[in-house]
Specification:
- The protein is α+β, with helices and mostly antiparallel strands.
- 51% of the residues lie in helices and 13% in strands.
- The protein has one domain.
- The protein contains eight helices and four strands, in the order ααβββααβαααα.
- Strands 1-3-2-4 form a four-stranded mixed β-sheet.
- Strand 2 and strand 3 form a beta hairpin.
- The longest helix has 15 residues.
- It starts with a helix and ends in an 18-residue tail after the last helix.
Length: 168
């Protein structure tokens, strides 16, 4: 499934000429809304041929693109789950759920280009430095690292991606 996800990200980036999940959502006619959601980070739902990504407006703004990209992954691969009930995100980077893992792989591949992260790995050599430079959660950088390893890149193992990092 990972190869299929990576192909879909490449297809979208080529088609829309951007890696910005908000621009892609707009061009795909997916409505992005912001609401107070309590502990909920965001959710995706599909109703009557209309697709929605809803983001918790009370989160740090730098997390908005990550949530949007993650929910965009659900749109691409899990629409059937969202027809009856929204796919809700209480924690991102959950490794226990296959749909959540797939959405995380989609988000990491969309938001972090290979060339960018490989240049940073050559300079800094630590996941923490790379995450700080990219202004991304270290868990997302870890997902990208796992993707790069699957593509044959020689980078160190990290594997810290858990489902509770946004709770901190």
């Amino acid at each position: 499934m990972t190869k299929f996800i990576l192909k879909e990200v490449n297809r979208l980036v080529k088609k829309y000429k951007t890696r910005d999940p908000f621009e892609i959502a707009e061009m795909m006619k997916i409505n992005v809304c912001y609401h107070e959601l309590g502990n909920l980070k965001g959710y995706y739902f599909y109703q009557s041929k209309f697709r929605y990504i809803v983001i918790n407006k009370n989160m740090k703004e730098e997390l908005f693109p990550i949530i949007c990209a993650h929910e965009l992954g659900h749109d691409r691969f899990h629409q059937s789950f969202a027809k009856n009930d929204p796919i809700r995100e209480f924690s991102l980077f959950d490794m226990k759920s296959k749909p959540e893992r797939e959405a995380n792989i989609f988000a990491a591949e969309l938001l972090i280009p290979d060339k960018t992260i490989m240049a940073l790995f050559k300079e800094d050599c630590t996941y923490a430095n790379v995450a700080a430079e990219l202004k991304m959660p270290i868990e997302l950088v870890d997902f990208k690292g796992q993707i790069l390893k699957s593509k044959g890149f020689d980078i160190g193992q990290f594997c810290i991606s858990g489902g509770d990092f946004l709770k901190r």
